[in-house]
Amino acid sequence: MHAILRKPSPEREVLFLFCIAHPIVRWLAPSNVTGYIFYTLSAPFKKMRSLYDLAFSAQYREELVLNGAANSIYSEYYKSTKQLGDDIVTEPFPWAGSLIRRWYWDFLVNLTLDLPLVVYAMIFPCRLSPSSVMSIALLQQATNRLSLSVGEYGMHSTSMKSLCLQAKWLYDAISYKSKMTNGPMSYPSRSSSSEGMKISFRQVLLRYGKSSHDALDNVTLDIAPGQLVLVVGVNGSGKSSLLKLIARLSNPTEGEILIDDKSLSTYDSDDVRASIAFLPQLPLLFPMSVKENICLGLPSRVHVTDEKIQEAAKMGSCTNWISKLPNGYDTQLKPTHDIGNGWADGTYGTISERLREELARHKQQTVTISGGEKQRLAAARTFMRINHTDTRLVVVDEATSSLDAITERDILSEFHRARQGKTMILVTHRFHHLVKEADQIICMKDGSVVERGTHNQLIEDGGEYAKLYNAQVLSA
């Protein structure tokens, strides 16, 4: 711009006109794009999108760790990539963004961008000098590069803020280093009991972040292989914190946790989690089909059949509502974004009603599922894991809170029947019908274990457990 202002008049005005002519013509020219929709019928591509959303959404992270599903996601994504083959995945914009318009508009656009030197020579043939040619060439190059940069940015990014946030997320992910180191030992070891996992806490204290409150305080306990253990206590007593430490979602602030008489930190965390079937209180639905939700986390060596899936669904008491879904076990619970449109509220012209109908025809609706149905589906996933992996520990953390009493009893009975070769820890508010089956009851209050023993022992002691049990019996 400085070089242009130094030119004599009228050369200065002509060059300045070239600077502003192209944006003005581009603004006045009718758009050569139109509204469009895009969707895919490729099953492998749809699955890849689901797995991508699953792997990179923070909301699923804890659930995936508890299910030991990281390797499963990788293997399934790799399999879908192979099935997709060499198909090129391209954006639909080029086909909708190159429509033919009146010839004179393209002529004016090209004239103001690509032909300034010719026009200049026609207007000022006697003033054409090397410096003028250089000025025009620089102007042409700068305008062209700026146009391309802005065009590419507008096509591939929603906003500068979004672009910066994505860049920050990427660099944070690359630079992140886990504070939890894996031990060298595999699990189960040769000394592990065939009856199930042995668990010991030794003066364990847990404090989250900078909180001044201890989630767990001086917890010491032992759970023998194959025991059925009930953990009871009011809300906020530390039950869930205790159980998540076993799955090593975090490390204790103080103290030590032992698995089969060896420190938990000495084991490979993935091996330990692969031996645990963990059913949380608030399970999540994954952006996949019902069938894939039930099977997620299974090792690739497991041969999955419809019969095995239906058996797990039956144990989780969810066959009835699955049969009512539009596509049964193949119903997509949370459809991925494999369909979209490019009409931008009419920016690209009038949108036909036929195009809108086509979008509605291919767009899958999210299936509405109640809290109880989510818990049934998560229970089916847990049973699938128990039935077809070497599970040494089953943890059920208030995972039946949204179920009616009969369904809760049926699911807990299925867990009880699957006890062989497994240690089992149950947390439930309605525990009175399980107390006589329990080998040990752990009663917690304010982050501490206040009582341990059998039902009869704790009732005779008349302490905190007796109060909870009597209150439940009276309200039943």
UniProtKB/TrEMBL annotation:
Its domain of life? Eukaryota
What InterPro entries does the record tag this protein with? AAA+_ATPase (IPR003593), ABC_transporter-like_ATP-bd (IPR003439), P-loop_NTPase (IPR027417), Type_1_exporter (IPR039421)
Annotated PROSITE patterns: ABC_TRANSPORTER_2 (PS50893)
Q: Where is the ABC transporter domain?
A: 199-471
Does the record bear Nucleotide-binding in its keywords?
Answer: yes
Does Nucleotide-binding appear among the keywords? Answer: yes
| Any one GO molecular-function label of the UniProt entry | ABC-type oligopeptide transporter activity
Keywords of the record, alphabetical order, are: ATP-binding, Nucleotide-binding
Protein name (Swiss-Prot/TrEMBL): ABC transporter domain-containing protein
Q: Which organism is it from?
A: Suillus luteus UH-Slu-Lm8-n1
